[in-house]
Amino acid sequence: MTTTGLVAPRPPVRRPRSRTHSVTVRTLGPVALLALWWASSATGLLTPDVLASPTQVIDAVGELWGNGQLPDALATSLTRSGIGLVIGLTAGLTLGITTGFTRLGDELLDSSLQTLRTIPFLSLVPLFMVWFGINETAKILLIAVATTFPMYVSTSGGVRNTDRKLVEAMRSFGLGRLAIVRQVVLPGALPSLLAGLRLSMTLSVIALIAAEEINATEGIGYLMSQAQSYARTDILAVCILVYGLLGLAADVLVRGLERVLMPWRTAGPGGGDR
């Protein structure tokens, strides 16, 4: 066999990317959208009755912050979202471990949970209003339901993918079920758990928007309904941006957890491109 004309293979060389470069690239999209928004408002393509200009939105932020409406609404919405998210994560994690780690739990619960998962949580709003009224309970439970199933699916799948030989080896060393779950199963399912956490935190913001449509008297949703009544597109834009920033903050938080809990994902192959 001749090797004439062949060249020696060269492994790909990854050039390290600085943190500043990564942040700069990530901000290009939002900055471009902001510039387009400003230009459209300045040229009259966007009139204030359609969408307020960035300057008007900034003025609205100052107005709402100065009179205390925005801090109060933000605190109320974060409390609703946070309590509902904690309930949903706890339920999803518990059910996911139960169905993923035990055959009995899988046979008893998984088919019912998969059926419930296909029901859009927005369709539950009228039913929750009948069951729980228009108080905080209905709002919090709607967020909890919306965030339970992403966590359940991710946890169940991650637990099922745990190396069974490793589990059996730990049993042979005398570890009980709870110890195996805590020391073997959960660490092995960590990537799936964080993926479920990311989806659940994002959905908690989406569910918050729906929950605050249930006759809210405080919160970001209440500000939106009041702004709609008075055709204040500047306040409407503020509320929409707040919701978006809440979702972005949730995603950044999970990314930070990934770097702390799974440093090999950024340091390993492909990590330099993230």
Topology:
Layout: H1 19-42, H2 54-66, H3 69-101, H4 103-117, H5 125-132, H6 136-160, H7 164-172, H8 177-188, H9 190-211, H10 220-229, H11 233-261, H12 264-267
Helix pairs in contact: 2-11, 3-4, 3-6, 3-9, 3-10, 5-6, 6-9, 7-8, 9-11, 10-11
Write structural notes for this entry.
- This protein has 274 residues and is mainly alpha-helical.
- It is built from twelve helices and no strands.
- Helix 3 (69-101) crosses helix 10, helix 5 (125-132) crosses helix 6 (136-160) and helix 10 (220-229) packs antiparallel against helix 11.
- It starts with 18 loop residues before the first helix and ends in a 7-residue tail after the last helix.
- The model is unreliable at 268-274 (pLDDT under 50).
Attribute tags:
274 residues; mainly alpha; 12 helices
Distance between the termini: 42 Å
Number of strands: 0
Uncertain parts: 268-274
**Alpha-beta classification:** mainly alpha
**Which outline best applies?**
flat
Which range best describes the helical content: under 10%, 10-25%, 25-40%, 40-55%, 55-70% or over 70%?
Answer: over 70%
For the residues shown, what is the average pLDDT?
82
Radius of gyration: 24 Å
Largest sheet: none
Beta percentage is under 5%
Number of helices: 12
The run of helices and strands is HHHHHHHHHHHH
Outline of this structure?
The chain has 274 residues and is mainly alpha-helical. The chain contains twelve helices and no strands.
